Amino acid sequence: MSSSNTTLDPTAEPRSELAKQVEEDHAERHSTHGEVLRDIILGVADGLTVPFALTAGLSSLGSSNLVVIGGLAELFSGAISMGLGAYLAAVSDSDHYDAEYERERREVEAFPKTEERECYEILEKYNIPHDTLTPVIKALVSDEAQWIQFMMDFELKLEKPKWYRKYVSALTMGLSYLIGGLIPMIPYFAMSDVTHALFVSIGITAVVLLVFGYIKNWVTVGTKRSAFYGAFQTLIVGAAAAGTSYGIVRGLDSEHPVSTQ
User: Fold this and answer.
1) By mean pLDDT, which of 8-12, 87-91, 103-107, 179-183 is the weakest?
2) Quick one: angle between helices 130-141 and 112-124, nearest 10?
3) Which residue, of 6, 95, 247, 249, has the greatest Cβ tally within 10 A?
Protein backbone atom coordinates (compact mmCIF):
# COMPACT_ATOMS: atom_id res chain seq x y z
CA MET A 1 0.00 0.00 0.00
CA SER A 2 2.77 2.38 0.87
CA SER A 3 4.45 1.81 -2.48
CA SER A 4 1.16 2.53 -4.25
CA ASN A 5 0.76 5.79 -2.35
CA THR A 6 4.28 6.77 -3.27
CA THR A 7 3.68 6.07 -6.93
CA LEU A 8 0.42 7.99 -7.03
CA ASP A 9 1.75 10.98 -5.12
CA PRO A 10 1.59 13.82 -7.68
CA THR A 11 4.14 15.90 -5.77
CA ALA A 12 6.91 13.31 -5.73
CA GLU A 13 8.46 14.13 -9.12
CA PRO A 14 8.32 17.94 -8.85
CA ARG A 15 10.06 17.75 -5.48
CA SER A 16 12.76 15.60 -6.99
CA GLU A 17 13.31 18.10 -9.80
CA LEU A 18 13.35 20.96 -7.32
CA ALA A 19 15.96 19.17 -5.24
CA LYS A 20 18.12 18.67 -8.31
CA GLN A 21 17.80 22.33 -9.24
CA VAL A 22 18.71 23.48 -5.72
CA GLU A 23 21.71 21.18 -5.73
CA GLU A 24 22.87 22.55 -9.09
CA ASP A 25 22.39 26.15 -7.94
CA HIS A 26 24.34 25.38 -4.77
CA ALA A 27 27.34 24.00 -6.65
CA GLU A 28 30.35 25.41 -4.83
CA ARG A 29 32.76 27.53 -6.80
CA HIS A 30 36.09 28.28 -5.19
CA SER A 31 39.09 29.95 -6.74
CA THR A 32 42.05 27.62 -7.24
CA HIS A 33 44.46 30.40 -8.15
CA GLY A 34 44.70 32.21 -4.81
CA GLU A 35 48.49 32.37 -4.71
CA VAL A 36 48.82 33.56 -8.30
CA LEU A 37 46.09 36.15 -7.76
CA ARG A 38 47.87 37.39 -4.63
CA ASP A 39 51.13 37.78 -6.57
CA ILE A 40 49.38 39.70 -9.36
CA ILE A 41 47.69 42.02 -6.86
CA LEU A 42 50.94 42.73 -5.02
CA GLY A 43 52.91 43.21 -8.22
CA VAL A 44 50.44 45.51 -9.95
CA ALA A 45 49.71 47.49 -6.77
CA ASP A 46 53.39 48.18 -6.18
CA GLY A 47 53.99 48.77 -9.89
CA LEU A 48 51.26 51.38 -10.06
CA THR A 49 52.24 53.25 -6.91
CA VAL A 50 56.05 53.16 -6.65
CA PRO A 51 57.07 54.15 -10.23
CA PHE A 52 54.17 56.61 -10.34
CA ALA A 53 55.34 58.25 -7.12
CA LEU A 54 58.95 58.33 -8.36
CA THR A 55 58.14 59.81 -11.77
CA ALA A 56 55.82 62.35 -10.18
CA GLY A 57 58.62 63.38 -7.86
CA LEU A 58 61.22 63.55 -10.63
CA SER A 59 58.86 65.61 -12.79
CA SER A 60 59.34 68.48 -10.33
CA LEU A 61 62.87 68.79 -11.75
CA GLY A 62 61.39 69.78 -15.13
CA SER A 63 63.11 67.24 -17.40
CA SER A 64 61.24 64.51 -19.29
CA ASN A 65 64.51 62.71 -20.05
CA LEU A 66 65.37 62.59 -16.37
CA VAL A 67 61.93 61.23 -15.54
CA VAL A 68 62.14 58.54 -18.23
CA ILE A 69 65.67 57.43 -17.35
CA GLY A 70 65.04 57.46 -13.60
CA GLY A 71 61.65 55.80 -14.02
CA LEU A 72 62.98 53.01 -16.24
CA ALA A 73 65.90 52.38 -13.89
CA GLU A 74 63.51 52.00 -10.96
CA LEU A 75 61.02 50.00 -13.00
CA PHE A 76 63.44 47.29 -14.09
CA SER A 77 65.30 47.12 -10.79
CA GLY A 78 61.99 47.01 -8.96
CA ALA A 79 60.62 44.23 -11.17
CA ILE A 80 63.79 42.16 -10.65
CA SER A 81 63.67 42.81 -6.92
CA MET A 82 60.01 41.83 -6.67
CA GLY A 83 60.56 38.66 -8.68
CA LEU A 84 63.60 37.69 -6.64
CA GLY A 85 61.78 38.40 -3.40
CA ALA A 86 58.84 36.24 -4.47
CA TYR A 87 61.22 33.43 -5.46
CA LEU A 88 63.06 33.51 -2.14
CA ALA A 89 59.79 33.64 -0.19
CA ALA A 90 58.48 30.58 -2.04
CA VAL A 91 61.76 28.70 -1.47
CA SER A 92 61.56 29.59 2.22
CA ASP A 93 57.99 28.26 2.41
CA SER A 94 59.08 24.99 0.79
CA ASP A 95 62.08 24.59 3.12
CA HIS A 96 59.88 25.33 6.13
CA TYR A 97 57.36 22.68 5.08
CA ASP A 98 60.08 20.05 4.54
CA ALA A 99 61.63 20.81 7.93
CA GLU A 100 58.28 20.56 9.71
CA TYR A 101 57.42 17.34 7.89
CA GLU A 102 60.70 15.74 8.98
CA ARG A 103 60.15 16.92 12.55
CA GLU A 104 56.64 15.48 12.56
CA ARG A 105 57.92 12.18 11.17
CA ARG A 106 60.44 11.88 14.00
CA GLU A 107 57.77 12.66 16.59
CA VAL A 108 55.44 10.00 15.19
CA GLU A 109 58.21 7.42 15.36
CA ALA A 110 59.54 8.43 18.79
CA PHE A 111 56.29 9.35 20.60
CA PRO A 112 53.43 7.45 18.89
CA LYS A 113 51.12 7.51 21.94
CA THR A 114 51.51 11.25 22.36
CA GLU A 115 50.88 11.88 18.67
CA GLU A 116 47.86 9.58 18.71
CA ARG A 117 46.46 11.51 21.66
CA GLU A 118 46.91 14.71 19.67
CA CYS A 119 44.80 13.23 16.87
CA TYR A 120 41.95 12.77 19.34
CA GLU A 121 42.39 16.34 20.60
CA ILE A 122 42.29 17.74 17.07
CA LEU A 123 39.07 15.97 16.09
CA GLU A 124 37.32 16.36 19.45
CA LYS A 125 37.33 20.12 18.84
CA TYR A 126 34.62 19.37 16.26
CA ASN A 127 32.43 17.86 19.05
CA ILE A 128 32.86 14.30 17.80
CA PRO A 129 32.49 11.75 20.64
CA HIS A 130 35.68 9.99 21.74
CA ASP A 131 34.24 6.51 21.13
CA THR A 132 33.23 7.45 17.61
CA LEU A 133 36.75 8.62 16.85
CA THR A 134 38.50 5.45 18.06
CA PRO A 135 38.10 3.34 14.89
CA VAL A 136 38.95 6.35 12.73
CA ILE A 137 42.14 7.09 14.68
CA LYS A 138 43.16 3.43 14.69
CA ALA A 139 42.81 3.30 10.92
CA LEU A 140 44.70 6.57 10.55
CA VAL A 141 47.72 5.59 12.68
CA SER A 142 48.03 2.26 10.89
CA ASP A 143 49.45 4.13 7.87
CA GLU A 144 52.42 6.24 8.96
CA ALA A 145 52.51 8.39 5.82
CA GLN A 146 48.83 9.31 6.13
CA TRP A 147 49.26 9.85 9.86
CA ILE A 148 52.07 12.36 9.29
CA GLN A 149 50.07 14.06 6.55
CA PHE A 150 47.09 14.35 8.88
CA MET A 151 49.26 16.10 11.46
CA MET A 152 50.65 18.44 8.81
CA ASP A 153 47.15 19.32 7.60
CA PHE A 154 45.31 19.64 10.91
CA GLU A 155 47.89 20.26 13.63
CA LEU A 156 50.36 22.48 11.79
CA LYS A 157 47.92 23.61 9.07
CA LEU A 158 50.64 23.58 6.43
CA GLU A 159 50.12 22.84 2.74
CA LYS A 160 52.96 21.40 0.72
CA PRO A 161 54.05 23.98 -1.87
CA LYS A 162 54.11 22.78 -5.46
CA TRP A 163 57.57 22.39 -6.97
CA TYR A 164 56.92 25.04 -9.61
CA ARG A 165 55.48 27.58 -7.18
CA LYS A 166 58.74 29.53 -6.80
CA TYR A 167 59.12 29.99 -10.56
CA VAL A 168 55.51 30.98 -11.15
CA SER A 169 55.55 33.38 -8.21
CA ALA A 170 58.76 35.09 -9.34
CA LEU A 171 57.57 35.46 -12.95
CA THR A 172 54.06 36.57 -12.02
CA MET A 173 55.10 39.21 -9.51
CA GLY A 174 57.97 40.55 -11.62
CA LEU A 175 55.85 40.91 -14.77
CA SER A 176 52.91 42.36 -12.83
CA TYR A 177 55.18 45.01 -11.36
CA LEU A 178 56.66 45.78 -14.78
CA ILE A 179 53.26 46.13 -16.47
CA GLY A 180 51.80 48.17 -13.63
CA GLY A 181 54.83 50.47 -13.55
CA LEU A 182 54.80 51.17 -17.29
CA ILE A 183 51.31 52.68 -17.19
CA PRO A 184 52.13 55.96 -15.37
CA MET A 185 55.28 56.39 -17.50
CA ILE A 186 53.55 56.29 -20.90
CA PRO A 187 52.85 60.07 -21.06
CA TYR A 188 56.54 60.88 -20.45
CA PHE A 189 57.49 58.80 -23.50
CA ALA A 190 54.99 60.60 -25.72
CA MET A 191 55.16 64.19 -24.46
CA SER A 192 58.12 66.57 -24.21
CA ASP A 193 56.44 68.97 -21.79
CA VAL A 194 57.01 67.36 -18.40
CA THR A 195 54.22 69.32 -16.69
CA HIS A 196 51.62 68.21 -19.23
CA ALA A 197 52.96 64.66 -19.05
CA LEU A 198 52.61 64.75 -15.25
CA PHE A 199 48.95 65.75 -15.39
CA VAL A 200 48.18 63.13 -18.04
CA SER A 201 50.04 60.52 -15.97
CA ILE A 202 48.01 61.48 -12.91
CA GLY A 203 44.76 61.14 -14.84
CA ILE A 204 45.66 57.78 -16.38
CA THR A 205 47.00 56.36 -13.15
CA ALA A 206 44.00 57.56 -11.14
CA VAL A 207 41.62 55.76 -13.50
CA VAL A 208 43.74 52.60 -13.50
CA LEU A 209 44.02 52.66 -9.69
CA LEU A 210 40.25 52.95 -9.37
CA VAL A 211 39.63 50.12 -11.82
CA PHE A 212 42.34 47.94 -10.30
CA GLY A 213 41.11 48.52 -6.75
CA TYR A 214 37.54 47.73 -7.78
CA ILE A 215 38.48 44.51 -9.60
CA LYS A 216 40.86 43.45 -6.82
CA ASN A 217 38.20 43.57 -4.13
CA TRP A 218 35.50 42.24 -6.41
CA VAL A 219 37.58 39.13 -7.14
CA THR A 220 38.82 38.59 -3.59
CA VAL A 221 35.71 39.58 -1.59
CA GLY A 222 32.92 39.41 -4.15
CA THR A 223 30.64 42.29 -3.13
CA LYS A 224 30.03 45.65 -4.79
CA ARG A 225 30.46 47.49 -1.52
CA SER A 226 33.91 46.01 -0.98
CA ALA A 227 34.77 46.67 -4.63
CA PHE A 228 33.98 50.40 -4.32
CA TYR A 229 35.89 50.52 -1.05
CA GLY A 230 38.88 48.85 -2.71
CA ALA A 231 38.79 51.37 -5.57
CA PHE A 232 38.75 54.33 -3.18
CA GLN A 233 41.42 52.81 -0.93
CA THR A 234 43.81 52.08 -3.81
CA LEU A 235 43.39 55.58 -5.23
CA ILE A 236 44.11 57.21 -1.85
CA VAL A 237 47.25 55.12 -1.32
CA GLY A 238 48.57 55.94 -4.81
CA ALA A 239 47.81 59.63 -4.46
CA ALA A 240 49.47 59.80 -1.04
CA ALA A 241 52.60 58.05 -2.32
CA ALA A 242 52.87 60.32 -5.37
CA GLY A 243 52.18 63.49 -3.41
CA THR A 244 54.76 62.61 -0.76
CA SER A 245 57.41 61.77 -3.37
CA TYR A 246 56.73 64.96 -5.32
CA GLY A 247 56.95 67.09 -2.18
CA ILE A 248 60.20 65.50 -1.00
CA VAL A 249 61.95 65.84 -4.36
CA ARG A 250 60.68 69.40 -4.81
CA GLY A 251 61.89 70.29 -1.33
CA LEU A 252 65.32 68.77 -1.87
CA ASP A 253 65.67 70.49 -5.24
CA SER A 254 64.86 73.88 -3.70
CA GLU A 255 67.71 73.39 -1.21
CA HIS A 256 70.18 71.92 -3.71
CA PRO A 257 69.04 72.59 -7.28
CA VAL A 258 69.78 69.78 -9.75
CA SER A 259 70.87 70.79 -13.21
CA THR A 260 68.82 69.14 -15.97
CA GLN A 261 70.97 70.31 -18.81
Assistant:
1) 8-12
2) 130
3) 249
